[in-house]
Amino acid sequence: MDTPEYKRVVLKLSGEALAGNDGFGINPSVVNSISRQIKEVVELGVEVAVVVGGGNIWRGKLGSEMGMDRAAADYMGMLATVMNSLSLQDALENIGVATRVQTSIDMRQIAEPYIRRKAIRHLEKGRVVIFAGGTGNPYFSTDTTAALRAAEIEADVILMAKNNVDGVYNADPKIDETAVKYDELSYLDVIKEGLQVMDSTASSLSMDNDIPLIVFSFEEQENNIKRVILGEKIGTTVRGNK
Q1: Is the C-alpha dihedral spanning 86, 224, 154, 15 positive or negative?
Q2: pLDDT at position 217, please?
Q3: What is the pLDDT of residue 1?
Q4: pLDDT > 80? residue 221
Q5: Range(s) of the domain holding residue 39
Q6: Domain with 230 in it: what CATH number?
């Protein structure tokens, strides 16, 4: 019988991951594939929380660069994460996985407000919890949201599923053919070398709370999330101390 390496996890998905090869919007086949992989993990008895980005719909940083007020642009990005979260919730529930969306910005008609103890209770009951709306504050990324929520719910690990790269490299492997993939790193390495894993705020928060991060691809095989949960060494592991 498969024995999970982790009991409670935060799965971080970029908004671009939901777009697939379309590059923009929500691709139903991709969302359904992610949902099936999450279901496999839930059936192992693992408690799964999800944080989804919004870059497939809107990027606050881009809006700011276009001259928008940064706070307003970031709030638009938070709303984009809610749209993505609702689409993932629908796909999960269509295959029989009980799911709750909790938002950091109050919108009770469509989702629960984020309440830490309630989120933990949902997880203990075997429900998937999707954290939408970022941290609820401008200037913070959904990477930081993942690190913050992981600390709050005492998750064992953050799983960062990528759709275009299979780990952390010392350069962009799509541009530099000599780029070297790391099997394991420390958060200090990530911060010092400026590696594009997660932003410095998220890295510092994860390091301070000793939460490991695993960066991997969910495209290569349909069950990569399950493989990571079972302890298979794929992708790159980032820890507080290497």
Answers
A1: negative
A2: 87
A3: 58
A4: no
A5: 8-239
A6: 3.40.1160.10
